[in-house]
Design a protein that fits this description.
A hairpin with a 6-residue loop joins β10 and β11. α2 runs antiparallel to α5 and α3 packs antiparallel against α4. This protein is α+β, with helices and mostly antiparallel strands. The protein folds into three domains: 98 residues, Efflux pump adaptor protein, beta barrel domain (Elongation Factor Tu (Ef-tu), domain 3, Beta Barrel); 68 residues, Beta Barrel (OB fold (Dihydrolipoamide Acetyltransferase, E2P)); 117 residues. It is rod-shaped. The strands form three sheets. Strands 1-9-13-11-10-14 form a six-stranded antiparallel β-barrel.
Length: 327
């Protein structure tokens, strides 16, 4: 009796096992592209080698565009800004002076000096003639004559210098001098703008809305220029980076509508393939299944349409059934 029962059930058990194995092989054979969710990652580098004085944000914190993340020592930058502002003010005042020309008071002052110089010159001329007459009669020494001649020449030179000075004032400033002053002002204003930018660079602000992924340095550290001060993850719907098996590469293209299945989310996510790499890579370890080992694959970026995916974190595994791709 027992033999008879065994002869009936043993074949049934074997058939069941064969059916389960066939089903598993069928499931495993379903073509799927595996990958992970990612977000745009933005590194915010130090633009100047100055000490970090205050850190306002913390890792994992959500921030808005323009929010202050950290500050660096700005004493040198402020001193440079003050110097640049003073230089610009001086250049502006000089240009205004040249464009306005000499004031009437300046012209009147030089004219008065010229009148005085001409009177002195007339006196020195009369004195020189008197000394020469006495010299002809041998009433004075040669030294007296030389002194009178020197005084006359000095008065003449002073009169000529004031005459030329008055002429320049009455003519006004040259156009070349005004153009040079304008160029000097433009250079000073450019230096001032650069100093303003340098000061702003020491206050690190978020370029867009996002989440602080990491702040590698601490307060008091002095980073070299180019060192990342913070890493920002875009606060938006993530995208998927999946790896297309080599045998499906020619059948998947940008613009195709796809379905994604993310771990931890029951709802299937709709997406669109944005790009498909033309260069193959070895399948990453997280995208491997038993049939993929040892095969090449092609990286593809999938933009997710469903806003519900915003709650998912970067690194979440996803699967993309290749048989459900729609053109």
């Amino acid at each position: 009796m027992k033999k008879r029962i065994l002869s009936i059930f043993i074949p049934l058990i074997i058939l069941s096992l064969l059916g389960i194995g066939l089903y598993r092989r069928t499931v495993d054979a379903r073509p799927v592209a595996s990958g992970i969710l990612e977000r745009d990652r933005i590194e915010l580098p130090a633009l100047q080698a100055e000490r970090i004085t205050v850190i306002h944000a913390s890792e994992g914190e959500s921030i808005e565009k323009g929010d202050l993340i950290l500050e660096q020592d700005d004493r040198r930058a402020r001193a440079a800004l003050d110097a640049a502002r003073a230089e610009a003010d001086s250049a502006a005042a000089n240009l205004e002076k040249l464009e306005s020309g000499p004031r009437p008071e300046e012209i009147a002052q030089v004219r008065a000096l010229l009148d005085g110089a001409e009177a002195v010159l007339e006196q020195q001329k009369d004195n020189l003639e008197r000394v020469r007459e006495m010299d002809r009669k041998n009433f004075n020494s040669k030294t007296d004559l030389e002194a009178a001649e020197a005084s006359y020449k000095q008065a003449l030179a002073n009169r000529d210098e004031l005459t030329a000075r008055l002429a320049l004032l009455e003519q006004g400033n040259r156009s070349e001098d005004i153009e040079m002053a304008r160029s000097a002002l433009a250079a000073a204003e450019a230096s001032l703008e650069l100093a303003l930018y340098s000061l702003e660079d020491l206050s690190l602000k978020a370029p867009r809305r996002g989440i602080i992924d990491s702040i590698p340095l601490k307060e008091g550290a002095t980073p070299a220029a180019g060192t990342p001060l913070a890493v920002l993850l875009a606060d938006s719907v993530p995208y998927a980076r999946v790896y297309i098996p080599e045998t499906w590469h020619t059948r998947v293209k940008a613009g195709d509508s796809v379905i994604l299945i993310a771990d931890g989310l029951e709802k299937e996510l709709a997406g669109t393939i944005l790009t498909v790499s033309a260069e193959p890579v070895f399948t990453p370890y997280f995208a491997l299944n038993q049939s993929d080992r040892g095969h090449l694959s092609y990286a593809a970026r999938v933009d997710i349409i469903d806003p519900e995916a915003a709650v998912l974190k970067p690194g979440t595994p996803v699967r993309m059934p290749l048989t459900r791709i729609e053109e």
